[in-house]
Amino acid sequence: AAACEHGEQALVLEAKIRRLEHKVSKDKLRVDLLGRVLGAIHSESTSSMLECQTKCEAQSSELSRIENTTAMWRACAFGLAVLCTTWALWRATDPALWAS
Q1: Is 4 helix (H, G, I), strand (E, B) or coil?
Q2: What pLDDT, on the 0 to 100 scale, is given for residue 97?
Q3: What are the φ/ψ torsions at residue 17 (nearest 5 degrees)?
Q4: DSSP helix/strand/coil, 3
Q5: What is the pLDDT of residue 4?
Q6: Distance (Å, rounded) from C-alpha 85 to C-alpha 79?
Q7: Residue pLDDT, tens place only, 30-75
């Protein structure tokens, strides 16, 4: 009877072991799948980050070019203002204008 009982316990334990092994196998598959999904997400985010970085560098370069052009036109406007003021003062103080 004791041997029969041990045999039954062994069968129950073997069934539990098979169920647990099956569960472990499923969990390993899930972990593998999640690892692949994580790798794909990481790869996509890296690609997206590089794309954004490239766009930001291009926009920064364009803004720098615009700032340089603006500074050049501002300097031209200042130079023209100085030239016009000098010409106006020269004309205003020209003795030939007052002589007639």
Answers
A1: helix
A2: 73
A3: -60, -45
A4: helix
A5: 79
A6: 10
A7: 999 999 999 999 999 999 999 999 999 999 999 999 999 999 999 9
The HSE-up count of residue 100 (CA atoms within 13 Å, CB side) is 3
Longest dimension (CA), the chain: 145
What is the three-state SS of 26-77?
HHHHHHHHHHHHHHHHHHHHHHHHHHHHHHHHHHHHHHHHHHHHHHHHHHHH
Tell the residue number behind the tokens 């501002």, with chain if given.
Answer: 74
Q: How many residues does the chain have?
A: 100
User: Residues 86, 80: contact at Cβ < 8 Å?
Assistant: no
Residue 95 has pLDDT above 90, yes or no: no
Under 8 Å between Cβ of 97 and 91 = yes
Structure-block tokens of residue 36: 């692949």
For tokens 């794309």, name the residue: 51
